[in-house]
Amino acid sequence: MPDLFEDVARRWKDRSGRRAAGRIDDGAVRAAYARWAPVYDRVFGAALDAGRRAAVATINALPAGRVLECGVGTGLSLAAYRRDHRITGIDLSPDMLDVARRRVSEGALDHVEALEEADAGDLSFETGRFDASVAMFVMTVVPDPKAVMAELVRVTRPGGRVVIVSHFAADRGWRKWIEDAAAPFASALGWHSDFPIARILGRDELRLVEQRRVGPIGFFTLIVFERL
Predict the structure, then answer these.
(1) 165 touches 221 (CB < 8 A)
(2) Helix crossing, 94-107 with 26-36: angle to 10°?
(3) Ranges for the Methyltransferase type domain (predicted)?
């Protein structure tokens, strides 16, 4: 595992000089997750489980409908959705999607309609296609968070829900200390551990329905919007 971490970190550092300031390069994201895909579930499955469960529980409380999971990764959340929901998952990493497709096949998850390689900031779906969209641990790693939020808003119908779960930067205290300590590890995966929550709040098309900390130490935040 240390060799994998060091290799991804080196690749990320090598690419960082070629990307625009403040922007994560698509190619760097693909390269990082190509390396992590075989071990992602073992390394991050339990660590991020509370956030995933909170997001899926929010979706499962809604009437049956079409759901977009943005950044579906290896599909860790797919089996937890109610079977009367119709799930479409997208991800930038083909390697992560390969794992997700095996999970769907082996688990006979027939409520999963599609798993597609796509840029979350430039979706091909028609406006208002989904009753809900969800992005778990995505906003701090995508190349353009503003574009991703705009697309989640666009493809979610009026009255639908946009659900976000992620870690957002703390100004002070023990959460800030953990962020600083974990920064090298986060960088190896392309995470922005200093991502402020203000970057996804305050959109005119969204009404904030819920915002709460999740997980054993409240390290992650669940945000639920209604699409206006």
Answers:
(1) yes
(2) 50
(3) 68-164
Angle between helices 2-16 and 26-36 (to 10 degrees): 170
Sign of CA dihedral 214, 99, 119, 5: positive
Please provide the CATH number assigned to the domain covering 2-227.
3.40.50.150
Q: Quick one: pLDDT band at residue 153, thresholds 50, 70, 90?
A: very high
> Phi, psi at residue 225, to the nearest 5°?
-115, 150
Alpha-carbon span 124 to 29, nearest angstrom = 20
**Considering just the CA atoms, what is the radius of gyration of the chain in Å?**
17
Q: What is the pTM (predicted TM-score) of this model?
A: 0.80
Alpha-carbon distance values, 180 to 21, 28, 128, 130, 177 (Å): 20, 22, 39, 37, 5
* DSSP state letter for 126: P
Count of H-run helices and E-run strands, the chain: 7, 7
Provide the residue ranges of all domains of the chain, joining segments of one domain with +: 2-227
Exposure string for 30-47, b = 16+ CB within 10 A, e = fewer: bbbbebbbeebbeebeee
CA angle 157, 161, 164 (to 5 degrees): 130
Dihedral sign from CA coordinates of 35, 190, 205, 126: negative
CA–CA separation, 160 and 154 (whole Å): 11
Give the residue-averaged pLDDT of 173-202: 61
